[in-house]
Amino acid sequence: MAVTRFAVATLALVLVTGCGLKARTFNEGGRGYAIGLGKHSGPVCLLPGKTPESVKKTYIGVLKGRKGSPGSFEPVRQTMVEEARAIGADLLEDTTMRQDLAFRGIFFIRPIGEGIAYQLENPEDFDCVANGGLLYQGIGTPPKRLAPAATVQPASTAPPPSQALSYDQCMARVLRVQDERLRLESMSLCDGVK
Question: Of 15, 53, 77, 151, whose CA is between 20 and 30 Å from 194?
């Protein structure tokens, strides 16, 4: 009985000690910790790809974040953003998120994130959202994302000019538009159809 209690307590201790969120910045090649360029509290951009070559930036290191227990990617991203601010990074380029298999007495999958940390020369000139990134403004605030593009029917589905559309056919086409604002604007186009 005492052995069972000890085993359960040990297993719980092992599981709990690895459950925290962690983020570290390493030198190139992962050898040692990178030295930051000073703290800041400004926005941080998580970019899934590369920045345009015209953007001037200073390399800091490879930033890696992880969660010690199963869960979503958002807490790992938030932890990576906090670490980026602590080392003076404005941009995490080539950011990747993945699930990793961990063993702490039992197997489970945990979220892992990685990105290359840079300090931008002119951070106000770089439009993170337009370049496909997530912009984290402040601590605990949700990121700014690019709004989804309106879905419009391709031009190849339009009838040739020789065929006249009836009002019902026009409205049927307009109702297929998925963007509500664009659909409402397009409804007025059917008013001129016989």
Answer: 151
